[in-house]
Amino acid sequence: MNYYLLEPEVAGDFGDDTEMDYSVQPPAVTRLQYRFLGWLGDEILESTPAFIVTEHLAGLIEEAGLTGYRFAEVDTILDEQAEELDEGPVELPDFRWLQLTGKPQVDDFGASDNGSLIASERALEVLRRGALNHCDIEPV
What are the distances in angstroms from CA 107 to CA 61, 101, 103? Predict the structure, then answer.
């Protein structure tokens, strides 16, 4: 099976309520708050080493029976600067935290040594069923 290194859209950064352990590399995120600064519409986003997906995409991942992940709650907030740039209220869909638990190049989802997302060809096909227009993808 082929595997791919994915660099999803970065639509924001960690909010103040994010909790991270910097004693390990990459840092371990134990509580995630994703602060949106702008969003181009992709359904998988990152703020390394954390990834979030829309509820829609989470459902597709679960239906496909993919391996190497679990979902957790994520707190999403919209930075006031983002609303000013959009000149009005911004409606965000619900998101889930995609936690990578698999072995890279063995399971469908895994993390590289630096915390980047590695996905199987099967997982990439599922991700492409959602919006994936600003994600860099290269073979591993």
Answer: 13, 9, 6
> Which residues on neighbouring strands pair with residue 117, listed in sequence order?
6, 111
CB 67 within 8 A of CB 26: no
Q: Which DSSP string do the residues of 65-82 spell out, in sequence order?
A: T--SEEEE--EEEE-HHH
Cα–Cα distance measured from residue 137 to residue 140, given in angstroms and rounded to the nearest whole number: 9
pLDDT in tens, the chain (140 residues): 899 999 999 999 999 999 999 999 889 999 999 999 988 999 999 998 999 999 999 999 999 999 999 999 999 999 877 666 555 556 889 999 999 999 999 999 999 999 999 999 999 999 999 999 999 999 99
How many C-beta atoms lie closer than 10 Å to residue 108's C-beta?
22
The CA-CA-CA angle for residues 70, 71, 76, to 5°, reads: 150
This prediction's pTM:
0.93
